[in-house]
Design brief:
Layout: E1 4-5, H1 14-21, H2 23-34, H3 39-56, H4 62-96, H5 100-110, H6 114-132, H7 137-148, H8 153-163, H9 171-184, H10 188-195, H11 199-203, H12 206-220, H13 224-245, H14 250-268, H15 292-312, H16 315-319, E2 332-336, E3 344-346, E4 349-351, E5 354-358, H17 363-378, H18 382-395, H19 397-416, H20 418-427, H21 433-448, H22 451-469, H23 473-487, H24 492-501, H25 508-535
Parallel strand pairs: 1-3
Antiparallel strand pairs: 2-5, 3-4
Helix pairs in contact: 1-20, 2-3, 2-25, 3-4, 3-19, 4-7, 4-17, 4-18, 4-19, 5-15, 6-7, 6-8, 6-9, 6-12, 6-13, 6-14, 7-8, 7-24, 8-12, 8-24, 8-25, 9-10, 9-22, 10-13, 10-23, 12-13, 13-14, 15-17, 19-24, 20-21, 20-22, 21-22, 21-23, 21-25, 22-23, 23-25
Length: about 550
């Protein structure tokens, strides 16, 4: 069996090795943003290039490189692709059942202004779904809802991606922060608190940022009360929850606080001018009227989904379906990857290669259960249910190819050492490291599509580098996670989710161009905040 000892500097020059490792990223950006390739074509070419670099430059045996690609593709299809399909299926179900017209009516009764709708759905509601489920679900659901409300597809996908970036650090009941603690041995409560002293600064401006994207200052000044209430309520709750109530519930508490605060505001204040994208029409006919019972029934798929996701995220629920250590379980698909398992060593330690999917506790299953219950509540026939699912799967076939290829690249980047090479180069920047620490996390999320994965990939590196340059490791590890948030909107996996949810398959490059500048500005701001906290406002670091 082929074995491979990771070498993070195969060229004998760390920066040159890192530059070669970064070529697939550069190619992907060029393919999508400049050449405007279809997402699945760019994804397949990127994983091909990355595989060649892993084999030729990083000297990874061919059998291990190809097996790594296959393992990553499997992880891309399940659980991530599974969540995407189910999230879009949920939306398509409400449309097929004729309920989305009622949902649009109910939202328009709160406000028929698309600026307010963007704040409620893309910013607040998607953060709630992020806190409960994560893994692409918020973008899939929010983007699909915005499309249904008359938003142009590009703006529906782009706004959902930009707005959902900051909650990512506390997604899925705080899994990214928990992972950072497990990998580094540092207190996850302190890491979560530190992140809660960085992200609220950006959260304050996200609502304004969203509206400025939509229509500039002219559009923003008409809804300043809503912008202020949404941002201030979310950021205060985000800080309080992450520092004093437990980081695990941060997104849930902050999003619900923001939704309630907005609802209170809108009960006595409305924008003086009604705003919508040029060429779009009102979401509801003026003569329509629905009863409270009809509105509740229409919203039932999302209410049921929220409740099911909350149940699925509980530790005691997950524990019911865990196999005893060292044993198999009917609830799990679990096996060691042939050829690859224990065939790669890092620092003399063999690395396992296991595929694990608990098909019961997966987020996709939670949404599947919710769709079944929703179909019953809505009175949908089994035939219509299956027909809607079939159409959804056909709609997402090509985005699933993209997701599989991108996750193959993420797995290859980790196991070949390419990702670590890029991280190590940035960690050698001395006093400037406090600024670059978030950029390392940013690279990790771009590569893997997951804040959890970037913390697993670079958490220990951040700790070691922080010790070398003399800054607090809590700050560096938290910055890894918060910097990763800024990359979520440009991660190829996220863009694939957005394109699938808005029927923009083949236009992934347009979405990337839409989100890229915002992503770069966000990570730069986080880098500045991190540096200031390291050297100027050191009292902001929790102990």
């Amino acid at each position: 069996m082929s074995t491979y000892a990771q070498n993070f500097d195969p060229m004998g020059n760390l920066w040159l090795s890192a530059l070669l490792a970064a070529l697939p990223i550069a190619f992907l950006g060029w393919a999508l943003a400049v050449k405007k390739m279809k997402g699945y074509v760019a994804a397949l070419l990127t994983i091909t290039l990355a595989t060649l670099i892993a084999i030729i430059v990083f000297r990874m045996p061919v059998s291990l490189a190809l097996t790594t690609d296959f393992l990553g593709a499997m992880k891309g299809l399940a659980p991530i692709g599974y969540v995407v399909v189910m999230g879009v299926f949920l939306y398509n179900l409400t449309v097929a059942a004729g309920q989305f017209e009622i949902i649009k009516y109910s939202i328009s009764k709160v406000s028929d202004d698309q600026r307010i709708q963007a704040l409620l759905i893309a910013f607040s509601f998607s953060a709630f779904i992020e806190g409960a489920a994560g893994f692409g679900t918020p973008v899939a659901i929010a983007a699909a809802m915005l499309i249904g409300l008359g938003f142009p597809p590009l703006y529906a996908a782009g706004l959902a991606l930009v707005a959902n970036s900051i909650p990512v650090a506390y997604g899925s009941i705080g899994i990214p922060i928990t992972t950072a603690g497990n990998v580094t041995g540092l207190s996850p409560d302190l890491i979560g608190a530190m992140a809660g002293r960085q992200l609220p600064i950006l959260t304050l401006i996200i609502p304004l940022w969203i509206i400025m994207i939509m229509g500039g200052w002219k559009a923003a000044k008409g809804v300043l009360p809503a912008v202020i209430v949404a941002g201030v309520s979310f950021s205060i709750a985000q800080f309080v929850s992450s520092n004093y109530l437990g980081y695990q519930s941060t997104d849930l508490i902050a999003s619900m606080t923001s939704i309630v605060a907005m609802a209170i505001l809108l009960s006595f204040w409305k924008p003086k001018d009604k705003w919508s994208f040029e060429g779009t029409t009102s979401t509801v006919a003026a003569d329509k009227h629905y009863t409270g019972g009809q509105i509740l029934r229409a919203w039932s798929p999302y209410l049921i989904t929220s409740l099911i996701i909350l149940l699925w995220s509980r530790t005691w629920f997950k524990a019911m379906f865990l196999a005893p250590k060292g044993q198999s379980s009917v609830w799990e698909i679990k096996f060691n990857m042939p050829i690859l398992h224990n065939a790669i060593s890092v620092g003399g330690k063999a690395q396992g290669a296991e595929y694990l999917l608990n098909w019961v506790t997966a987020s996709g299953t939670a949404i599947l259960v919710a769709t079944i219950l929703s179909a019953i509540v809505l009175g949908m026939s089994a035939g219509k249910f299956l027909e809607t699912f079939s159409k959804t799967f056909k709609q997402l076939a090509l985005p699933l190819v993209s997701i599989a290829a991108f996750l193959a690249y993420a797995e290859l980047s980790t196991r070949s050492g390419m990702g670590t090479a890029m991280g190590m180069a940035l960690s050698a920047t001395g006093p400037a490291f406090a600024f670059f620490a978030p950029i390392i996390g940013y690279i990790g999320v771009f590569l893997t599509g997951s804040d959890t994965s970037t913390n697993a990939l670079f958490g220990k590196l951040q700790t070691v580098a922080a010790g070398q340059v003399g800054i607090d490791p809590i700050l560096a590890v938290a910055a890894n996670s918060t910097g990763g948030c800024a990359a979520k909107m440009i991660s190829p996996q996220s863009i694939a989710v957005g394109s699938g949810a808005t029927n923009m398959v083949g236009q992934e490059g347009n979405i990337l161009r839409f989100t890229l500048k915002h992503s770069l500005i966000f990570v730069t701001l986080i880098g500045i905040i991190s540096w200031l906290q390291a050297y100027v406002f050191t009292g902001m670091i929790p102990h």
